[in-house]
Amino acid sequence: MSTSVPDTVSPTVPLGGPTLPQERRLVTSIPGPRSEELLARKAAAVAAGVGHTVPIQAVAAGGGVVVDADGNSLIDLGSGIAVTTLGNAHPKVVAAVQEQVAQFTHTCFMISPYESYVAVAEALNRITPGDFEKKTALFNSGAEAVENAVKIARKYTKKQAVVAFDHGYHGRTNLTMALTAKNMPYKHGFGPFASEVYRAPMSYPFRDGLSGADAAKKAISVIEKQVGVDNLAAVIIEPIQGEGGFIVPADGFLPALVEWCRANNVVFIADEVQTGFARTGAMFASELFGIEPDLITTAKGIAGGLPLAAVTGRAEIMDASHAGGLGGTYGGNPIACAAALAAIDAFENDGLIERARELGALLTERLSEIQAADPRLGDVRGRGAMIAAEFVDPTTGEPDAALTAAIAKACIAQGVIVLTCGTYGNVIRFLPPLSISDNLLREGLDVVAGALKAA
Ligand code: PLZ
After folding, report:
1. Ligand 1 atom nearest residue 171's Cα
2. Do 79 and 426 form a contact (C-beta atoms < 8 A)?
3. Are residues 281 and 368 in the same domain?
4. Which domain holds residue 382?
5. In a domain, 395, yes or no
6. CATH code, 290
7. Residues enclosing ligand 1, CB less than 6 A?
8. Domain count within the chain
């Protein structure tokens, strides 16, 4: 079943959802006057540290577009950083939220439990990889899920150290800043960071040229020599790194790490906050590498845009905490849970995994064409609707962050939302909503190709 939205042009701009005209439409320059007005208010009222990539005032979004207050319609190739995988204001999510919000908005699950939280836990236990008994706990953000996965792993193993990887990203709270590799903008000046966090080398085939087995050997040697298995509670890794540059590890790297963890009483945590829920052409990216993590952290795509996050994993590990040891006021909020149940229903039943693969094929084919004609595009990689282009100086292979920034800026000015990423800032990542039409995606990629040529 295809979930692509027809490229219909309707004369009106409804309040949101997939009935928006599916077109790139620029009626002012970006930002237009109404967006400028909001950005001036933002500068005066919002803390300077909170940045923005696209200088618009968003008023509606759906299908494959974001519409601004000036009437511009931008092609969305970012999904609000891999969140609106289903499509913005997806009708199933809208209906579920509307029904729940009129029933009750909050009781606190730790005070008076309700059914939807339990149903989300049951669904996650069922759809995450691994045919073993699982349990789930719900939280509010990806970072909070990661924090709790580490707490749980420490409690279970009675050990303290945690290993994260070069180029890894796990959040902006104190522990997750420590786990995150990149200094600017995430960590600079915000220390001291949490202790007992160590870093191992990642498999990065485009830059290290190592096989998965050799890269794993190198990482394991660093861990054994610098941390020691008797101190190590958990290894945490994104199966495909997100913020770090959509780095896909070489075949065999992840299975070797999982096997080593299992042999050494180390909890293997897959951070699937960015890769989860059909994004990579599988329900979870772990499946693409044939691994069954002990714990999986999820967020972003889980609830169609509402804030929700989860830790799911082996029951004996998840149950290691004393009663009352896990929780939070809002974790598993009933509105977010209603949205998640609707979203998971769509992920399972509306052909979205298939759609992610189709979009991945389209992205890869077009970007490979561009690469064949222009050696500044050094690498095209990713899976499903999570594809990246890494830009380099063709003579030295050095990362070209300036070129990357210029392309992204030109795309946004022409009404195409693209996001950059990568430790070296030289990667453009494509994370379209799965509700985008083929034609809109093609048009967006044409704009990217033009921007590269002009840069
Ligand atoms: N783990 C793998 O990708 C969030 C960060 C955007 P939160 N990635 C987007 C930014 O600049 O802050 C992310 C992730 C992975 C954890 C997180 C953290 O998720 O919901 O942002 O806390």
Report:
1. 18
2. no
3. no
4. 33-76+352-454
5. yes
6. 3.40.640.10
7. 81, 141-143, 146, 169-172, 238, 242-243, 271, 273-274, 299
8. 2
pLDDT > 70: percent of the chain: 96
Tell me the average pLDDT across 375-385: 98
Residues 247 and 359 grouped into a single domain = no
* pLDDT at residue 34, as a whole number: 98
Q: Residue 233 contacts by C-beta under 8 Å, 6 or more apart in sequence?
A: 150, 153, 154, 156, 157, 159, 160, 161, 162, 266, 267
CA 183 to chain centre: 19
Q: How far apart are CA 435 and CA 4, in angstroms?
A: 5
Same domain for 290 and 174: yes
Question: Mean pLDDT for the chain?
Answer: 96
- Same domain for 333 and 410, yes or no, is no
- H helix count then E strand count, the chain: 15, 15
CA distance 400 to 189: 26
Mean pLDDT of 427-444: 98
**Residue 272 and residue 347: Cα distance in Å, rounded?**
15
Is 207 domain-assigned? yes
| Residue 323 located in a structural domain | yes
Give the pLDDT score at 19.
Answer: 81
Of the three residues 349, 370, 388, the one that is the final residue of a domain is 349
Q: Which token pair is 31?
A: 């930002």
CA angle 193, 197, 199 (to 5 degrees): 115
Q: Looking at 287, 317, 349, which one is the last position of a domain?
A: 349
Q: How far is ligand 1, taken at its centre, from the CA of residue 356, in Å?
A: 21
150-177: per-residue pLDDT in tens? 999 999 999 999 999 999 999 999 999 9
Compute, in angstroms, the gap from residue 6 CA to the centroid of ligand 1.
31
